[in-house]
């Protein structure tokens, strides 16, 4: 399972995409995570200023 974006909290700032070591995130209006490229490292979770990204349990 890939990281999950809460579209209600995401502002599309791009911080997550800039910090992702696998380039698994793109941003249009909100962040979109490529499930095949995401390795669940958690960097995006830590870097998101709005708490909009989480890892599945």
Entry keywords:
57 residues, alpha+beta, Alpha-Beta Plaits, two-stranded antiparallel ribbon, 4 strands, 18% helix
Helix/strand/pairing class, anyone? alpha+beta
Query: According to CATH, what is the topology?
Result: Alpha-Beta Plaits
Total of helices? 2
Strand segment count? 4
Strand arrangement within the widest β-sheet reads: 1-4
Distance between the termini: 9 Å
State the major sheet: 2 strands, antiparallel
Q: Please bin the fraction of helical residues.
A: 10-25%
Low-confidence stretches are none
Compute the CA-based radius of gyration: 10 Å
* Run of helices and strands: EHEEHE
The coarse silhouette is globular
Class in CATH?
Answer: Alpha Beta
So, CATH architecture?
Answer: 2-Layer Sandwich
Mean pLDDT across all amino acids: 97
Beta-strand content bin: 15-25%
